[in-house]
Design brief:
heterotrimer, A alpha/beta (about 220), B alpha/beta (about 350), C alpha/beta (about 600), B: about 350 residues, alpha/beta, Rossmann fold, ten-stranded mixed β-sheet, C: about 600 residues, FAD/NAD(P)-binding domain
Chain lengths: ~220, ~350, ~600
C-alpha cells in the first residue's frame, strides 16, 4: 500500500530520456495496394516463405486486402472452416511462427565465469536482488553465474545456460514456480534439475532470500 | 446452418450500383444461424443499404463481439475488413480502429447480451465519445447461443419458452442512448426492411455514433406466445413514431416540403434524411421530446420505432479530441513522430 | 390476383420446362438423376415410358427440351439432355424382362397400323399390352420408316434401330397397303395411318428435267443410299435447302465420294431450319454453306448438268416483314444437285369414297387432339397427319391416337380425354438433407466427342458421335437443376421472417401486398419478372400481415435454400411426377391422385 501511494503521489526522478532520430519502425511484411493487385487472392494466414509469418495488410488499402479477424476456426484465407486439415495447416503454421520467433526475440542477459558451478535463473524485477546475491555468494566463495531471461519463447542460450551447471536455481516471485514449469514444458529440462527459489510475500525480493536459499540447498547436498 | 454454398447464379435483371456492383457482391458467406433468425434479415438489410449507398467494400470495417448477433458480420460484405472481438469489447476495438483510421466506414453489430450485459460500459463510453460508427443491436431478449436465458432487454412479464416470467426491469438501449447523449438513435424491426434499410443508410451517413436497436426475433427460443420479442408480438405492438426517408444528395430536395410535419436533416456527407413524425407534437431533433415519447409508448405497451432522434450538429470523437484530419497511415512518419527535439523540450518543461 | 392453384398438375408441369416442352412429356430430370446414380436401365425404362425410342432419339431428336431448359437461362447453355438420353441407352442392361407383354388372351379388337414408323410403332407399343391384336402394314422389309431409310447410319446405327423397333415388333410383315377400303372391309376396329410424308418436294426450274440422272430428291436419294441403289456421287454436289434432310444429304454425299459440297440457302443463317448442331457437324466436315442464293436455273450442256444458276439476294427487314432484292446472278458449277426443300404426304391408296375427307392442300382433315379423321375408325399421326415434324412428335401423336383408339373400342367418345394427374411428395430426409443433390454445379456444358474426320469418311456407317465419356456424364448430369423438385409453399405456416427471400440466390421471392394486376405485380418483385413465358406464383394471404408470397419461376435454381432456411417448413421441396394419361387408364382408371 505504502509503495502504491509512493508511486502515485510523489514525483520520481528518472534518467534523462533519449530518442534516436534515425529510428524508423519496421512494419514487417505488409502488402501495399500495388502488391495486392498482383495477387489472385490475398490469404491472410498463408505462409509463403516458410518462416511462419504471413503477410498482412492495413485496413482500407487495396481492394483485395480485406480479411476477417475471427475467433472461430478459420483457414489460411481467414475464411470460416470446420475442415480439420485446413485448421491443422493453420495451427502448424503458428508453431513454425513460434519457433521462428525464438530466434528473433531478445537474448537472455547472463554471466559466464570460468570457475562457476552454480547457475541462477531469474527474470524481470528480481534481477537486481539476484545479482546482489551473486556478489554476496562470491564472498562465501560460492561462484555463481546469473541469467536473466528477457523473452519468451526461449532462445537457445536459455537451454545452454541451464545445462552448463551442476546446480541451477530458478528464482521467481510466485507460489508455483511458473517459470520453472515453462522451462520444463518448453525445453524439456527435467524439473528436478532446477531448484526453485520462490518469494511471494508481496514485498520486493531481497538478496538475502536468495543467498539463504542457495547456501541452504548446497549444504544439504554436501551434508 | 445450411448445407450448401449459395449458388453464384444471379437473376438476369439484377441491377448494379454506381460502382458496378450487384446486390450479391455485398453478400457474405452463408449464415450458420438458425433458419428464420431475425439476424439474417438484418444482414440482408445491411447488404441492401451498403449496395444502395455504393460503399466501397474494402473501405468498410465490420466490427463485432460475441453472440449470435456478432456472428453476422461474416454474413455480409465478404470483401470488407472484419473484426470479431472479445465479448462486449467491440465498442473499444472500434474506438481504437476509428482513432487510427478515420477514413473507413465502421459498422458494429452487437446483440442485447453483448451490448447490455457484459459490454454495457463499453457501449456507454463509445456513445459518450461519439465514435463515428453505425452500431446495430440485434435485440431478441434472450441468449440464443446458450439455450435462451433472458437477457437484460427482456420485458417484465415476458415468458421464456418453458413458461417462467422475467421479473427484472429491462434495459432499453434507446432510452439508455438518449440519456447519455447519443446523437443518432433509432429502433426498427428485422421483419420490416422498408423501415430498416433507410435507417441503416442514414446511420452510416451520420457523423458520429448511430445506434440502431433492431427487434430481431429468435425463432428458436423467443418466438412463442408469451414473448414480447416475437414476430407476431412485434408486428402487433410496433408503432412507427418517425418515418425516415434517406435522400442520397441534399440538393435533390429542391422544394420545401408541402407537408409541414416533415423535417429535412442535412447529413454531414451531403446527403439528407426526410423525417416524417407520425405522432403530432413529436420532434425527432429534440432529445427531451424523443425520450418522453419512447417512454410513453413503453407505458402503453407499444414499441416505438423509426428514426427517433438525430443531432447532426454534434461533434464526433475526432473533433472532440482535435485529431489530425487524415488517417494515421496517410501521415508520414516524420510528422507522426515529433523527434528528439520535442522530447528534450518536454523534459525541460518538467525541470 | 387469385392465388395460384398448384393442385392443377399443369402449374408444376410447366415449371419443369424440359418436360413441358417435350411433345411426349419425357420426365427429363428424373431420368438424369437415375443416370447420376448409375441406374441406366431404370433411366432407359423411364424414358421409354414416354418417348419409346430413347436410343434413337438420344441421337436424332430435334431436342425441343433444350432451348426450354432453365439452365440455358441461368448459365448460358442448356443441359445436354438429348445426349444424356443416349448415355442411358448405351449403358443399359437387358431390358426385355421389364417390358410389358402382350397377353395371351386378346381383347377381341383388331387394329391396323399403316407404316412401321415411329407413330405406328408407338400405337402398337401402347395397345399390344392391353390385348389388342395389332397388324402393321409396311412396304419395306424392315421397320422404322424414315428413321431407317432417311436418317444416315453414321448418325443412327442400324443396330440401335433394330433393337428398339424389335421391342415392339416380333412379327412378320411386309405388305404394302393398296386400298384403305379393302383394309376397313377386313373388319379392323380401327386403322391408324402413320405412313409419314414419304415424298420429296420437287423444284420446277428451267433445266430441271434435262439431266435427270444428276438431279435427285433428298429423301429418295437417302433411301436409295440406304438400300444401296446408290453407292457413289459425282465430285461437285449442290444441295438445295437447309433443313435437317439437307444436312443428312450433304454429309452422306461427302461419304460417297463428293469432294466439293455446297449447301445453298435462300436466306440468312438465322432463318435456317436445320438444328444448329447439325449445321455445326456439317461444317466440321468441310461442307460449305452458302447463304442468300435463290436458285433460278439448272445449267445443262449437251444433256449434261454442269452447274446451277442463282440470284444473289439481299434481304431487308421492315415492320417484321422480310423483303429481298436481287443483287446479281451467279452460276455455281456442279456435277449433281440434290433437292432437299421439304417433303409431302401422299395417300394414293386412300380412295375418295373411304370416308376420309381431304382439304384443299390434299391433307387429311384430322382432329388436333384425338387424331381422328372424318372416318371415325381412321386415325392419323406422325408426318402423315399434318406434314413433316420430328420423331418425338410422331411418338406423342402415337400415344394420343392409342388413347383415342382405346376409347373408340370401348364405346366411349374419343373427346373424353383422360385427365393428367400428378404425385407430389416431399423430398426432405432430415435437417439440410434432401433426396436429391441440391448443390449447384457451375460446370459448363460438355462437348460431344466426335470420330476423327479421316476415319469417318472411310465407311458410310461409322458413327460420328462417340457419346459422352464417363467423366463427362458425371459432369453433365450435375448440371441439371432438378426442376421437378418443386418449391411448395404452405401460406398458413409462414411467419414472414423473410429468411427465404434473403437467401434466394436469384431473387425469385417477394412478400408484398396483393391487389394489383399481374403486369404490375411482375414489376414489384425483388427482381422484376421480365420473362413473360414463365409463371409467377401467388400464395394465399399470409397469417400475420395478409400480404402474399410471390415467386418468379423464371430462374429458380431449385437449390432448396428457401426450404432449408424456412423455420416453419412453410417452404418444402417436393418431387413432382406427372401422371400422363395412357390408354387402358382411359376406360376406368380410378380418380387420379391430386396433391
Amino acid at each position: 500500500m505504502a509503495t502504491d501511494l509512493d508511486i502515485g503521489m510523489n514525483d520520481w526522478m528518472v534518467k534523462r530520456l533519449t530518442w534516436d532520430d534515425s529510428y524508423r519502425p519496421d512494419h514487417g511484411k505488409v502488402l501495399d495496394a500495388a502488391a495486392l493487385e498482383k495477387l489472385k487472392r490475398f490469404s491472410r494466414y498463408h505462409d509463403v516463405d516458410g518462416d511462419g509469418i504471413a503477410a498482412r495488410t492495413l485496413p482500407g488499402v487495396g481492394g483485395k486486402g480485406a480479411y476477417f479477424v475471427r475467433g472461430s476456426g478459420h483457414d489460411k484465407h481467414a475464411a470460416y472452416t470446420e475442415d480439420s486439415d485446413a485448421y491443422r495447416e493453420l495451427v502448424d503454421r503458428l508453431k513454425r511462427k513460434f519457433d521462428h520467433a525464438a530466434t528473433l526475440v531478445p537474448r537472455p542477459a547472463y554471466t559466464r565465469r570460468p570457475n562457476a558451478d552454480v547457475g541462477l535463473v531469474t527474470l524481470g524485477s528480481c534481477d537486481a536482488a539476484v545479482r546482489e546475491a551473486a556478489d554476496r555468494l562470491a564472498d562465501q566463495e560460492i561462484i555463481v553465474d546469473v541469467m536473466r531471461i528477457r523473452s519468451f519463447p526461449f532462445a537457445d542460450e536459455v537451454r545452454e545456460f541451464i545445462e552448463a551447471y551442476d546446480s541451477v536455481f530458478v528464482i521467481e516471485q510466485n507460489r508455483d514456480g511458473q517459470v520453472r514449469t515453462l522451462l520444463t514444458a518448453e525445453l524439456g529440462i527435467p524439473r528436478d534439475a532446477m531448484t526453485p527459489i520462490l518469494d511471494y510475500g508481496g514485498m520486493p525480493l531481497t538478496a538475502r532470500v536468495v543467498v539463504e536459499a542457495v547456501t541452504g540447498a548446497l549444504s544439504e547436498v554436501t551434508a | 446452418m445450411t448445407s450448401i454454398v449459395k449458388p453464384p447464379v444471379r437473376h438476369p435483371s439484377l441491377r448494379t450500383n454506381t460502382l458496378g456492383l450487384t446486390l450479391r457482391d455485398y453478400e457474405g458467406v452463408m449464415s450458420t444461424l438458425c433458419a428464420g433468425c431475425g439476424h439474417d434479415s438484418v444482414t440482408a438489410a445491411l447488404v441492401q443499404a451498403a449496395w444502395e449507398l455504393a460503399l466501397e467494400p474494402h473501405r468498410a470495417a465490420k466490427m463485432s463481439g460475441i453472440g449470435c448477433s456478432s456472428k453476422t458480420t461474416a454474413y455480409f460484405m465478404k470483401q470488407s475488413h472484419g473484426f470479431n472481438s472479445v465479448h462486449g469489447r467491440m465498442p473499444s476495438v472500434t474506438t481504437g480502429a476509428a482513432a487510427a483510421n478515420r477514413g473507413l466506414t465502421y459498422i458494429g453489430i452487437s446483440g442485447d447480451g453483448d451490448s447490455l450485459s457484459i459490454g454495457i460500459g463499453q457501449l456507454a463510453h463509445a456513445i459518450r465519445r461519439n465514435v463515428d460508427m453505425l452500431y446495430v443491436i440485434e435485440n431478441n431478449g434472450v441468449y440464443g447461443l446458450t439455450k435462451g436465458q433472458f437477457s437484460a432487454s427482456a420485458d417484465v412479464g415476458s415468458t421464456s419458452k418453458r413458461g417462467e416470467a422475467n421479473e427484472m426491469s429491462p434495459i432499453d438501449p434507446v432510452l439508455l442512448a438518449l440519456s447519455i447523449g447519443a446523437t443518432f438513435v433509432a429502433r426498427s424491426f428485422s421483419g420490416d426492411k422498408k423501415q430498416l434499410v433507410p435507417i441503416l443508410k442514414a446511420g452510416i451517413a451520420h457523423k458520429g455514433f448511430a445506434l440502431v436497436d433492431v427487434i430481431s426475433p429468435c425463432v428458436t427460443f423467443n418466438d412463442h406466445d408469451g414473448s414480447t420479442k416475437s414476430y407476431l408480438y412485434t408486428r402487433e405492438h410496433e408503432v412507427e413514431a418517425v418515418h425516415a426517408h434517406y435522400v442520397p444528395v441534399l440538393s435533390e430536395i429542391s422544394l420545401p416540403d408541402s407537408d409541414d410535419a416533415v423535417r429535412v436533416v442535412a447529413m454531414h456527407d451531403g446527403s439528407a434524411v426526410r423525417l416524417r413524425p407520425t405522432a403530432t407534437d413529436y420532434d425527432p431533433t429534440d432529445r427531451t421530446s424523443a425520450e418522453a415519447h419512447v417512454r410513453a409508448c413503453q407505458d402503453r405497451g407499444e414499441i416505438a420505432t423509426g428514426l427517433l432522434f438525430v443531432d447532426e450538429k454534434s461533434r464526433d470523437m475526432h473533433e472532440l479530441l482535435k485529431t489530425p484530419d487524415r488517417p494515421l497511415i496517410d501521415i508520414p512518419f516524420e510528422q507522426l513522430c515529433p523527434g528528439s527535439a520535442a522530447l528534450e523540450a518536454l523534459m525541460d518543461g518538467h525541470r | 390476383m387469385d392465388p395460384t392453384d398448384v393442385s392443377d398438375p399443369r402449374y408444376y408441369h410447366k415449371v419443369v420446362d424440359c418436360q413441358w416442352a417435350c411433345p411426349a412429356h419425357t420426365n427429363v430430370p428424373a431420368y438424369i438423376r437415375l443416370i447420376a446414380q448409375g441406374r441406366y436401365t431404370e433411366s432407359y425404362l423411364l424414358n421409354r415410358q414416354s418417348n419409346v425410342f430413347p436410343g434413337i432419339l438420344g441421337r436424332t431428336c430435334d431436342r425441343p427440351c433444350e432451348p426450354a431448359c432453365r439452365r440455358g437461362r441461368v448459365d448460358d447453355k442448356p443441359v445436354a439432355i438429348c445426349r444424356l438420353k443416349r448415355v442411358a441407352a448405351d449403358l443399359r442392361d437387358e431390358i426385355r424382362p421389364f417390358l410389358p407383354k402382350a397377353p395371351e388372351i386378346k381383347n377381341g379388337k383388331r387394329i391396323a397400323l399403316i407404316g412401321a414408323g415411329p407413330a405406328s410403332l408407338t400405337v402398337a407399343n401402347d395397345l399390344l399390352p392391353l390385348g389388342y391384336e395389332v397388324v402393321i402394314y409396311e412396304r419395306n422389309r424392315e421397320p422404322g420408316g424414315l428413321m431407317r431409310i432417311n436418317i444416315p447410319s453414321f448418325r443412327l446405327p442400324a443396330s440401335v434401330l433394330d433393337e428398339e423397333c424389335g421391342y415392339i415388333i416380333d412379327m412378320g410383315y411386309g405388305t404394302p397397303v393398296t386400298s384403305l377400303t379393302a383394309l376397313l372391309d377386313e373388319g379392323y376396329d380401327a386403322v391408324f395411318v402413320g405412313s409419314g410424308a414419304p415424298q420429296g418436294k420437287d423444284l420446277e426450274l428451267p433445266g430441271r428435267h434435262d439431266a435427270p440422272a444428276q438431279v435427285h430428291l433428298g429423301i429418295e436419294w437417302l433411301a436409295n443410299v440406304h438400300f444401296k441403289h446408290v453407292e457413289r456421287i459425282e465430285p461437285r454436289v449442290i444441295i438445295i435447302g437447309v433443313g435437317n434432310t439437307a444436312m443428312d444429304c450433304c454429309r452422306t454425299a461427302k461419304r460417297l465420294g463428293a469432294i466439293d459440297v455446297k449447301v445453298i440457302a435462300r436466306r440468312g443463317r438465322k432463318h435456317f431450319k436445320a438444328s444448329p448442331w447439325e449445321l455445326e457437324d456439317a461444317e466440321e466436315e468441310r461442307v460449305e454453306i452458302v447463304e442468300n442464293h435463290a436458285p433460278t436455273r439448272m445449267v445443262v450442256e449437251n444433256g449434261h448438268l454442269v452447274g446451277m444458276e442463282f440470284d444473289v439476294l439481299e434481304w431487308t427487314e421492315s415492320a417484321g416483314r422480310q423483303t429481298s432484292r436481287v443483287v446479281r446472278s451467279v452460276v455455281i458449277p456442279c456435277d449433281a444437285v440434290i433437292l432437299a426443300i421439304g417433303q409431302e404426304n401422299a395417300f394414293p391408296w386412300i380412295e375418295r369414297h373411304a370416308g376420309v375427307e381431304f382439304d384443299a392442300q390434299g391433307m387429311p382433315v384430322v382432329d388436333r387432339v384425338t387424331h381422328q379423321s372424318t372416318n371415325p375408325r381412321v386415325f392419323f399421326g406422325g408426318d402423315a397427319a399434318w406434314g413433316p415434324q420430328n420423331i418425338i412428335w410422331a411418338v406423342a401423336h402415337g400415344h394420343q391416337a392409342a388413347i383415342s383408339i382405346d376409347l373408340l373400342c370401348h364405346g366411349r367418345p374419343v373427346t373424353e380425354r383422360p385427365p393428367e394427374g400428378m404425385t407430389l411428395v416431399s423430398v426432405k430426409n432430415g435437417l439440410h438433407s434432401w433426396a436429391y443433390d441440391n448443390d449447384f454445379d457451375p460446370a459448363a456444358r460438355q462437348v460431344m466427342r466426335h470420330e476423327e474426320l479421316t476415319r469417318r469418311f472411310r465407311d458410310l456407317h461409322v458413327e460420328v458421335e462417340l457419346g459422352f465419356a464417363p467423366e463427362q456424364v458425371a459432369t453433365e448430369v450435375s448440371r441439371c437443376l432438378n426442376c421437378d423438385i418443386q418449391t411448395h409453399f404452405a401460406a398458413p405456416k409462414c411467419i414472414e421472417c423473410d429468411a427465404c427471400i434473403d437467401v434466394c440466390p436469384t431473387n425469385c421471392l417477394t412478400i408484398t401486398t396483393d391487389g394489383c394486376s399481374e403486369t404490375e405485380m411482375r414489376t414489384r418483385l425483388s427482381a422484376p419478372a421480365l420473362n413473360l413465358e414463365q409463371e409467377i406464383y401467388i400464395s394465399h394471404s399470409l397469417p400475420q400481415t395478409t400480404r402474399v408470397m410471390v415467386k418468379d419461376e423464371d430462374v429458380c435454381l431449385h437449390c432448396g435454400l428457401c426450404a432449408e432456411r424456412c423455420p416453419t417448413a412453410a417452404w418444402d421441396m417436393r418431387l413432382f411426377d406427372l401422371l400422363a394419361p395412357k390408354p387402358g387408364a382411359a376406360c376406368g382408371r380410378e380418380e387420379l391422385v391430386h396433391a
